[in-house]
Amino acid sequence: xxxxxxxxxxxxxxxxxxxxxxxxxxxxxxxxxxxxxxxxxxxxxxxxxxxxxxxxxxxxxxxxxxxxxxxxxxxxxxxxxxxxxxxxxxxxxxxxxxxxxxxxxxxxxxxxxxxxxxxxxxxxxxxxxxxxxxxxxxxxxxxxxxxxxxxxxxxxxxxxxxxxxxxxxxxxxxxxxxxxxxxxxxxxxxxxxxxxxxxxxxxxxxxxxxxxxxxxxxxxxxxxxxxxxxxxxxxxxxxxxxxxxxxxxxxxxxxxxxxxxxxxxxxxxxxxxxxxxxxxxxxxxxxxxxxxxxxxxxxxxxx
Length: 303
Known about the structure:
By secondary structure, this protein is an alpha/beta fold. The chain has 2 domains: about 1-210, P-loop containing nucleotide triphosphate hydrolases (Rossmann fold, 3-Layer(aba) Sandwich); about 210-303, Orthogonal Bundle (Helicase, Ruva Protein, domain 3). About 45% of the residues lie in helices and about 15% in strands. It contains 14 helices and 9 strands. The chain has helices at about 5-15, 20-30, 45-55, 70-75, 110-115, 115-120, 155-160, 175-180, 185-190, 200-210, 215-230, 240-255, 265-280, 285-300, and strands at about 35-40, 60-65, 75-80, 85-90, 100-105, 125, 130-135, 140-145, 165. The protein has a 5-stranded parallel sheet with strand order 2-5-8-1-9. Strands 3-4 form a two-stranded antiparallel sheet. Helix 12 packs across helix 13 (about 265-280).
């Protein structure tokens, strides 16, 4: 394992107790260059995880609390008339950062949710006909409450497809929760942590992820999984873009484990997190969709 990856995982695990698997998934998602969706109940550490990753990776971070009255301009920015120059001047919104935490994204209206589509896909925003590039790198970590909670608006399929991976943190185990209750405040621990990565380290790690070897037989297995999602009773399986996301996530998972080639178990580890939010049925929770993904993995043989 790359020593820098090991240090990030170790120090993040000292703050987010008992969630080593979720931390590694989150780091793999960012090293793959993707955006992350975290669905869970309030208070289980979703926002803290985003703050920890931003701190340890040395990323500038902005947080936006999504509410029903939030407008697209509140995220993207707006052109405001300047009397001195007798013209309009663009004032960037909080999206102009390296890591954007979209907190409780499904509490905003669909119009506001869709304001992030161009930013997440093209790493740019267009306001009043003018295109503005976003900082590099640019990641979105979005949290959302379960769909059965009041005051939520389901994310459309086009928005969900922009997230490379989705996950849930869940409650800590008894030992981790006890340590959490007796330990220091998590915010103070985050503030005391220096960044692990320097200016060029993140680019180096992302390039290393791309170099992880993928054999032809492994590609056959990925294609078999993609075909299996398209043979169900309901229309809409995984798209080719989702297939690319699965390959990149598997590369990143292998890399964070210290492996130089993608194996079937790497694909199986990330498949439910790449596929569930893309295959989720209306009114169905992500946990149920992940269970269906697990059943699909059991049905598709490894070449």
